[in-house]
Write a structure and sequence with these properties.
globular, alpha+beta, 5 strands, 81 residues, SH3 type barrels
Length: 81
């Protein structure tokens, strides 16, 4: 079950938002290309395209210029593979 604040941010995801999302055990970042219902199409900086359930897989919606420390560290750890 989603908290009200999280649901508000997830529902506000639009095209061109930058998000952090979960795919299996890794976390990636990417730009939202399209949102249809509860699913989002996201393109990573290297050009990979993912189709994700925005309520289950989106970890963070980036609103400012920086990632929160916890999200940044998770992205960095996933990058090491």
């Amino acid at each position: 079950m989603l908290s009200e604040a999280r649901k508000k941010y997830i529902d506000s995801i639009n095209k061109n938002n930058i998000v952090a999302f979960r795919n299996s055990e890794h976390i990636y970042s990417g730009k939202v290309l399209e949102v249809v219902g509860k699913y989002a199409t996201i393109q990573t900086p290297n050009g990979s395209i993912f189709y994700v359930d925005k309520y289950k897989d989106v970890v963070w919606v980036k609103n400012g210029s920086k990632w929160p420390v916890g999200i940044f560290n998770a992205l960095k750890r996933s990058k090491k593979g």
